[in-house]
């Protein structure tokens, strides 16, 4: 009767008084028979400490309708009378004189009842846990915890036999296994989620009464009389965090089962776990004929094709319908192909519509079957094809799905435009739109160009400052990291008319220059370029987009008429060969520096091979192409150049380039096998050996018993005579023999005859740094001749093209300076002969690559 009093006082006293009195008056007291709540009197029944309250709240779907809900402080609903049943403003929730709790309509119709009439119920009470009890003086006869709707809160036991329902979805526990089961029940039943947690634990057990609960610490657990301890279903992401909050699990209207937590006073719970990780796997999420996909992170619903439209444009999840029904097709019907798409099937609702056929048959079987509306060829190795004959079809599209699906539509099938805009390949309307856009854009661009030209004409034409301004502009560009375009005259000026020659590489001479901002640069005058302007710029863009500490940086370029020049950062200490073999003061380059150069070079090549966007095989690793800055940091140069040079042009060939390149070429060059990143590894291995020994790898002398140095070095290594290999010029005290041995081992692994036996450059770095263990390398040259193996090993990895300097090596009439005859020299000459005959083929490959037929290798 106190509730009635409260209502009366509220009516008389107005809302302020009401707010003051209500908590007092509803203070956890038991509700006697005859008590009632209604949307009109805004009364509520609350738990002793006001943690939960039962009252009418506006329906989430329609504000003029109401649901009777138990809500947590703040407004999160945890139970509703009749699972979301709505009444109008004249409705009520009342405890009848017979002890039945009833939700009635304004018209007096009973919408929902607890069915406890005549069982002796005397009071109703809402507990601090959120449980609503109907009881007599000694026993509980009904409780809301045993009749859950869509939510299970802390302290509530959800057992098998109970259901959570929400929209067209149902959640339950399998009685025998305790599996968590999610079903779609919107016309037929489809189980789309059925998972046992910790199967090892429950494998052979038949459970008696599995129970799911949300523990106060955030663990969702499964208990059963036959289990000694609870099985963890999931840890909430905020597991273990304490505070005044409610934790609960809920079956949401989107068919997912989630764990939440909500702070007291907040009406926005935070998701802590969801059972179905991929929302698109929820059957029917996008309605009938809807296709679920992702726009980045959120699931979005679309129709299968332009032959469909949303049933309710305001609700993408409401499904799609055909613009023309199949039976009304003006002509034929056809099967429209949807790539990376599946019509969900777990297992198929109708198992008789499951076949083992290929994609084409999967399409045709559905086309000829009059009741079939769609089909899916799983293409996941199972060979399965599903025909969808049911009246509800749920689609799932993801780039990761191998499946191909077909949907039956009236001819012609009009595919969806690609997500993210762009012109659609079909559809006249969008085609016309595309034209309009193109014309507008063209107009705008040419307008802008005209404007700029006019401005230049007015202001700059006669201005003497124009040249200076352009140089400044160029410097700005340089600062931004993009390659700067220089004019030929600018470069002529900065190199004082190409006076100070730094060297002559395989691609042309290099000159020292000083830019307007006093940056010292190396200007490379490329020779033998017959490439078009556009392709040259593309190559320049590729080269300049590779930035690495151990790669020489391209600052800019010049492309004017015949002139093609590249501007690089200047390396104060020149190239490595001068230090190792030459008369540079670097004969005394100490071991720590040599080792750092070895690691740095390996890092630079690793970047070219593995880490930059377009992989680059260098094809010409040799000491001449390893430059040293003022701190003796190694910088690899000349990468990406081979592609720039016309292979038919022989002018740039010099004796030095022949000598420099010969010993570093991997054997596969001679055998017409694919050139891969592993060819660079071979060349690197030779350089590494030279760093240790200070000898050219192909040197032949009395000291090495008339053997090639690399062959002799391996023999000495085999004998354990490492000291004999180490460069005599090295100052003895700072040699780290552990590093030396490691470097030698890596080197011998790198120069293995079989490309597959060589490590990747990434591994080389790890081996050198000692991160990776090293096995003892086998002899580089296998017992059978390499050439005899060539037919067995065909294309492995990316095949590539030949470096021009390599081509020149074997087509040049100039023979290398011949050492005194010996068996080993014969061998070298034999190689040269093979090379000569192979050169034409290699050149073929080089030009093939230049034509862009091997898009993944830019050289
Ligand atoms: C209600 O709150 C008081 C004071 O905070 C506390 O002592 C009491 O145990 C609480 N009652 C229940 C049922 O939680
Ligand atoms: C509730 O009453 C309204 C009119 O008073 C009626 O339109 C509606 O159908 C009723 N709902 C139920 C479930 O009886
Ligand atoms: C309360 O209900 C229980 C179960 O129906 C019954 O056994 C018990 O006698 C009832 N107590 C009273 C006082 O009526
Ligand atoms: C839930 O189950 C546990 C263990 O079986 C039991 O102690 C507890 O009383 C149950 N809670 C409710 C509200 O029934
Ligand atoms: C739960 O749903 C199943 C069908 O899915 C039904 O047979 C069962 O009676 C339901 N249980 C409850 C307690 O409503
Ligand atoms: C229970 O789930 C596991 C996968 O977690 C599944 O292999 C098993 O078939 C399920 N059991 C039942 C009875 O559905
Ligand atoms: C399964 O439960 C057993 C026993 O509690 C436990 O040792 C094991 O680690 C659990 N396995 C998983 C995958 O949770
Ligand atoms: C589970 O059942 C299988 C076959 O029924 C049996 O071979 C195995 O030993 C059982 N494992 C346990 C742990 O009972
Ligand atoms: C993806 O869709 C959601 C819901 O429609 C929208 O809120 C979000 O902005 C979309 N994201 C992108 C990247 O388009
Ligand atoms: C219908 O399709 C069949 C098979 O593709 C074709 O042979 C036939 O000409 C089509 N008929 C019409 C009216 O388009």
TrEMBL record:
Its EC number is 2.7.11.1. ATP binds at residue 524. GO terms for biological process: recognition of pollen; response to other organism. InterPro entries: Bulb-type_lectin_dom, Bulb-type_lectin_dom_sf, Kinase-like_dom_sf, Pan_app, Prot_kinase_dom, Protein_kinase_ATP_BS, S_locus_glycoprot_dom, Ser/Thr_kinase_AS. It is a single-pass type I membrane protein. Keywords: ATP-binding, Cell membrane, Disulfide bond, EGF-like domain, Glycoprotein, Kinase, Lectin, Membrane, Nucleotide-binding, Receptor, Repeat, Serine/threonine-protein kinase, Signal, Transferase, Transmembrane, Transmembrane helix. Its main location: membrane. Belongs to the protein kinase superfamily. Ser/Thr protein kinase family. This is Receptor-like serine/threonine-protein kinase. It comes from Oryza sativa subsp. indica.
């Amino acid at each position: 009767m106190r509730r009635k009093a409260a209502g009366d006082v509220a009516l008389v006293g107005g809302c302020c008084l009401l707010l003051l009195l209500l908590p007092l008056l509803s203070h956890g007291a038991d509700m006697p028979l005859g008590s009632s709540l209604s949307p009109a009197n805004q009364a509520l029944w609350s738990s002793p400490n006001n943690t939960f309250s039962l009252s009418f709240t506006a329906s989430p779907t329609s504000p003029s309708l109401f649901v009777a809900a138990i809500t947590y402080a703040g407004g999160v609903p945890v139970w509703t009378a009749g699972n979301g049943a709505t009444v109008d403003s004249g409705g009520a929730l009342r405890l009848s004189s017979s002890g039945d709790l009833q939700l009635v309509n304004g018209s007096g119709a009973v919408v929902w009842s607890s069915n406890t009439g005549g069982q002796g119920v005397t009071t109703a009470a809402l507990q601090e846990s959120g449980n609503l009890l109907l009881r007599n003086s000694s026993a509980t006869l009904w409780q809301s915890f045993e009749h859950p709707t869509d939510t299970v809160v802390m302290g509530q036991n959800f057992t098998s036999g109970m259901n959570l329902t929400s929209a067209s979805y149902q959640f339950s526990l399998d009685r025998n296994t305790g599996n968590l089961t999610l079903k779609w029940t919107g016309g037929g039943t489809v189980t789309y989620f059925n998972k046992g947690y910790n199967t090892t634990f429950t494998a052979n057990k038949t459970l008696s009464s599995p129970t799911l609960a949300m523990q106060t610490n955030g663990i969702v657990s499964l208990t059963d009389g036959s289990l000694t301890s609870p099985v963890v279903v999931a840890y909430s992401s905020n597991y273990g965090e304490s505070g005044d909050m409610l934790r609960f699990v809920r079956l949401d209207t989107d068919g997912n089962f989630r764990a939440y937590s909500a702070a007291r006073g907040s009406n926005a719970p935070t998701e802590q776990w969801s059972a179905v990780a991929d929302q698109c796997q929820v059957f029917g999420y996008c309605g009938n004929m809807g296709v679920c996909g992702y726009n980045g992170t959120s699931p979005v619903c679309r129709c299968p094709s332009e032959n469909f439209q949303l049933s309710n444009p305001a609700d993408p999840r409401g499904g799609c319908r055909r613009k023309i029904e199949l039976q009304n097709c003006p002509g034929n019907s056809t099967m429209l192909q949807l790539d990376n798409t599946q019509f969900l099937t777990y297992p198929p609702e109708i198992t008789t519509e499951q076949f083992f056929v290929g994609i084409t048959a999967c399409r045709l079987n559905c086309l000829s079957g009059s009741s079939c509306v769609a089909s899916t060829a799983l293409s996941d190795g199972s060979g399965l094809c599903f025909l969808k004959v049911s009246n509800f079809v749920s689609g799932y599209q993801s780039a990761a799905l191998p499946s191909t699906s077909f949907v039956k539509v009236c001819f012609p099938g009009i595919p969806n435009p690609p997500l993210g805009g762009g012109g659609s390949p079909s559809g006249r309307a969008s085609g016309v739109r595309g034209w309009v856009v193109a014309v507008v854009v063209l107009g705008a661009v040419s307008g802008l160009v005209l404007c700029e030209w006019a401005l230049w004409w007015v202001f700059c034409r006669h201005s003497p400052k124009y040249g200076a301004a352009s140089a400044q502009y160029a410097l700005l560009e340089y600062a931004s990291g993009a390659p700067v375009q220089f004019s030929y005259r600018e470069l002529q000026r900065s190199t004082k008319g190409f006076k100070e020659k730094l060297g002559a590489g395989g691609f042309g001479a290099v000159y020292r220059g000083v830019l307007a901002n006093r940056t010292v640069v190396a200007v490379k005058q490329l020779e033998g370029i017959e490439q078009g302007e556009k392709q040259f710029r593309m190559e320049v863009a590729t080269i300049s987009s590779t930035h690495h500490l151990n790669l020489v940086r391209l600052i800019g370029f010049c492309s004017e008429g015949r002139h093609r020049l590249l501007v690089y950062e200047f390396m104060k200490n020149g190239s490595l060969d001068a230090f190792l073999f030459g008369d540079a003061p670097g004969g005394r380059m100490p071991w720590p520096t040599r080792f750092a150069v070895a690691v740095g070079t390996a890092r630079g090549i690793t970047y070219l091979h593995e880490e930059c966007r377009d992989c680059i095989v260098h094809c010409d690793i040799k000491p001449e192409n390893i430059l040293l800055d003022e701190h003796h940091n190694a910088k690899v140069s000349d990468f990406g150049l081979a592609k720039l040079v016309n292979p038919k042009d022989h002018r740039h060939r010099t004796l030095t380039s022949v000598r420099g390149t010969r010993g570093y070429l991997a054997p596969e060059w001679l055998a017409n096998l694919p050139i891969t990143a592993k060819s660079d590894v071979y060349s690197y291995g030779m350089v590494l050996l030279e760093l240790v020994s200070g000898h050219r790898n192909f040197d032949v002398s009395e000291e090495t018993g008339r053997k090639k140095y690399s062959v002799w070095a391996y023999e000495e290594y085999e004998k354990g005579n490492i000291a004999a290999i180490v460069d005599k010029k090295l100052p003895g005290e700072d040699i780290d023999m552990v590093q030396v041995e490691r470097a030698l081992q890596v080197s011998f692994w790198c120069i293995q005859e079989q490309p597959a036996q060589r490590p990747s450059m990434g591994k080389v770095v790890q081996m050198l740094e000692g991160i990776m263990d090293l096995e003892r390398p086998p002899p580089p040259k296998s017992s059978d001749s390499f050439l005899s193996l060539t037919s067995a090993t065909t294309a492995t990895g990316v095949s590539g093209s030949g470096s021009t300097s390599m081509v020149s090596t074997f087509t040049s009439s100039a023979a290398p300076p011949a050492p005194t005859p010996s068996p080993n020299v014969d061998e070298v000459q034999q190689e040269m002969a093979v090379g000569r005959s192979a050169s034409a083929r290699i050149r073929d490959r080089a030009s093939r690559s230049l034509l862009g037929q091997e898009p993944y290798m830019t050289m």
